Amino acid sequence: MVAMKDKEMISLARKAFSNLLTLANEPLLMTHLKQAELPKLPASVNLGTRLVVQQLPFVLAFLLNTIEKKQFSDASSDVEMLARVSPFIQSPSHRSRFSSVLIKQAVDSPRDSRLPTVLSALANFSSTLENPRTLLRSLAPLFSVVSMRESREALAGVLRGLAKNDAIKGDQLRSLLLSVADLDSWDRRKVEEADYEKRHAAYHVVDEYCRSSSHLDGDVTALIVHTHVFALRTVSDVALRAAASDSLQEVIKAIGRAVIVMERVEGTEGKKKKEEEEKGTDERIQLIDKHVIPLVVYGFGHKDQNIRDEMMRSFSVMVNSFQFHPKIGPLSLLKSDDDEIDFFTNIIHIQTHRRQRALMRLSEMIEGEKVDVPVESLIRFILPLAEQWFVVENSSMAALSDEALRVFTAILSKSDWKKYIARFDYWLRKLEGAEQRKPIVRVMVAIVDGFHFDITDESCGVRKKVLSHLIPSLKQCIDSWIDYYLDGEE
Q1: pLDDT tens-digit series, residues 24-67
Q2: Which alpha helices (H) appear in 55-141, and where do they start and end?
Q3: N or C end: fewer C-beta atoms under 10 angstroms in the chain?
Q4: How many Cβ atoms sit within 10 Å of the Cβ of residue 234?
Q5: pTM, entire model
């Protein structure tokens, strides 16, 4: 069957499998005929499924051959068939291989409407996998991007299956997995409402784990971080959002003080892990760089001001807790015991002039070289925060926008050519497609003001790039702006 080359025959075989797995039993008309010996399965399993299970090795070979070679959108029917037969797969090697294939499909298409089918199949495997850590480690990113309720309930089902897996050591860890699953629980009596009691109880369990543990499981901690950030972005209930915010800050504090335990896994990830350990890479740094930083910094650019402020509060806790981090630690120089001066307190203050003053003090510190903060840290963390005010429509925010652009200029004046030209090209592209060009022209002026490279040496590589790229691009930009302005005058 696997060797079939004729696409039409393969299509017919696929349809036959699907029908066998889905069609209900019909009454037997010729009961006197001897029935074939079929696997002993629960009475609820239909005859077609019994026939497929009898030839399961051949069916699995066919499905594996097709799923591995296709994108999720092209393999959806095969994935659905796999989900239906997954409860009957007994071979540990088959379970492991199919779970790897399915998690890849899920990670590649986290917003696909057919994702619940994939996750349901994973839930069937999760309780019996010989090496569940591989699955657990791959799940974390899904918890911050999967948004459909049905898909998130299926994700919770995977965690509940993992909690039953004997290879997951420790009652506390199993209980924690169940609590993370409960963070997405819904009230059975009120279909559209969250189960508030269960979710708050789950937050309490997570908080106690973070406060009391000297060693944190790295994989589960990553799950928690992704789940909390998703709640902050999507949950409308004020009490639940507050609980998610407080709990996220507790997790950050715990990461800063506890020992992070990352169990080795077999296969490619295990090899990568070994290489990282040989290089002396701290596991806390890995957890922070791979999970915490991307989630929090991404939130700086969210369209909702409340979410941006929540992410900034979490980042302020990160600065306090991650003094050991080479890029976050230096930002502690922007902290102060005086709330009137503390940058992170004022940048999210409800009063606009407090935000404005925070940016003004920061630009003065950078220009006067009063703080020794690496420019990489400023670009990675401060610029995404300031960029929200570069282009504003409300005239009352004009002064704040001016200070944000001043910070932008100050940071660029310290950056290398690669980072400078990357920002130049980015905003130039935004200018070309903008309906309202004037605000973006202000950004381009700030970028030009930040130019600080010595190009007097004719052999200088930067000089050549300035002459071949930056100046022609600026000329085109100016000509375009003049044409736009003249057209407007007409």
Answers
A1: 665 555 455 556 666 666 666 677 777 777 777 877 777 777 77
A2: 56-67, 72-85, 92-108, 115-126, 132-139
A3: C
A4: 13
A5: 0.84
